[in-house]
Amino acid sequence: MSAAGLAPAGFFLAGLLVAWGLTFVVRQYARRRGLLDRPGARSSHAVPTPRGGGLAIVLTVLAGALVAMSINTADAHAVAAVVLPTLLVAGVGFVDDHQGLSARLRLLVHFVCAAACVLALAPMLGPQPGPAWWLGLALCVPTVAWCTNLYNFMDGIDGIAASEGLFVGLAAAWLLHGRGMDGIAWLLAVCGGACAGFLAWNWRPASIFMGDVGSGALGFLFAGSAVATWIGGALTPWVWILLLGVFAADATTTLVVRWRRGDRLTQPHRSHAYQRLARRLGDHGHAVRWTIAINVFWLLPLALLAAARPGLGPWLAVPGVGVLVWAALRLGAGRPDEAT
């Protein structure tokens, strides 16, 4: 295998090792500062647990991005356009983990960062993009903001957000190999590795939680990378919809059901399909293993086919994710326990 082919593996392994070590440091910091998530009626854990461990992932990704940009200057602009607003999203999450911020302020920052990312990537289209492209870019802004928030919503049981980050980062890096966007591929590889390193501390029973600093940053990073690879002609949005299908289907279905019920959407709850599945199975680990199996044996083959045959993208993504929406509804997503 060529050096270029080995690069993603190197970024992945480096990300794993660095994040594993940094998570230990961040856990000690969280303990000293008293940053603990304490069990409550709407939580899914039983003992006080340090939070904010996603900082280790963010710092690892930042280091990987700097290395990627120094090696591959051709993709440096795209990498920077994705990573810089990701850091701001992470910064807001870091503050929220420490003292709490209003949902409106966080959402405003997410939209501003999404707009900045999309505008920074727009020059990749060339001097005269058509109206359809501008419409697509406009739709990207709320999509990136939603992906940022849905990832945060889905970080509710041990290991689920980190295992999803491991899958999406590694799968996307693999799919991007040889498609002319090595810088983004390496960024995603180091992100997948960082999630793997963090997962060693976050698997059931978790010794540290990811926190908003990590979950929001991961959601934004993946959405921003999706926009970059769409504009760059490397991967269609349908591929990304499939890769993020578990999270997108569960979070979106739950939000719509709660909205239709008239629930206050900013109120914490435990009615996502994955949370209901964890309670039904009696263990976080079993629920996470189910999501991993769905990713590997259902969504990944569809994403591979969608990447190889772009014209089939919508014909694969709509039923592929539609099945997951149906499953979420069957599990009672968005409904109180007594309505199951």
Question: What descriptors fit this protein?
Answer:
340 residues, mainly alpha, 2 domains, two-stranded antiparallel ribbon, 2 strands, 74% helix
Structural class: mainly alpha
Globally, the shape reads: globular
Main-sheet strand order equals 1-2
Order of helices and strands: HEEHHHHHHHHHHHH
Q: What does the largest sheet look like?
A: 2 strands, antiparallel
- Span between termini: 52 Å
Mean pLDDT score = 93
The helical percent reads over 70%
Name the poorly predicted regions.
none
The domain tally reads 2
Binned strand content:
under 5%
Figure out the total of helices: 13
Rg computed from alpha carbons, rounded to a whole number of angstroms: 19 Å
What is the number of strand segments? 2
Provide structural commentary.
It is built from 13 helices and two strands. The chain is mainly alpha-helical and 340 residues long. It folds into two domains: 1-235, no CATH class; 236-340, no CATH class. Strands 1-2 form a two-stranded antiparallel ribbon. Helix 2 (54-71) runs antiparallel to helix 3 (76-99), helix 5 runs antiparallel to helix 8 and helix 12 runs antiparallel to helix 13 (313-330). The N and C termini lie far apart (52 Å).
